[in-house]
Amino acid sequence: MPAKSKAQQKAAGAALSAKRGEQKVGELQGASKSMYKSMNEKQLDELASTMRKGKPEHASKK
């Protein structure tokens, strides 16, 4: 599942970093904290590795 925005990709990257023990879980905020709790490492890796080119900064809400 590719990221829909740059913000979503950044949040996934932060959560992935915490899953791998490179960052403290307590430092996570908002979406990245939620992603850390609800997604496994493979899912986070897929979101975080999405190409950024052409993605909006934030996805529009529908």
Mean pLDDT: 89
**Tertiary shape:** globular
Strand content: under 5%
Please provide the ordered H/E string of secondary-structure elements.
HHH
Biggest sheet architecture: none
> What helical percentage do the residues reach?
40-55%
Low-confidence stretches: none
**Termini gap:** 18 Å
The count of strands amounts to 0
- Counting H and I runs of at least 4 residues, what is the number of helices? 3
Counting helices, strands and paired strands, the structural category is mainly alpha
Radius of gyration: 11 Å
Notable characteristics:
globular, mainly alpha, 3 helices, 62 residues
Structure write-up:
This protein has 62 residues and is mainly alpha-helical. It has three helices and no strands. The protein has helices at residues 6-19, 30-38, 41-48. Helix 1 crosses helix 2 (30-38) and helix 1 runs antiparallel to helix 3. The longest helix is centred in the first third of the chain and has 14 residues, at 6-19. The mean pLDDT is 89.
What's the helix and strand layout?
Elements: H1 6-19, H2 30-38, H3 41-48
Helix pairs in contact: 1-2, 1-3
Quick overview of this protein structure:
With 62 residues, the protein is mostly helical. The protein is 50% helix and 0% strand. The chain has 3 helices and no strands.
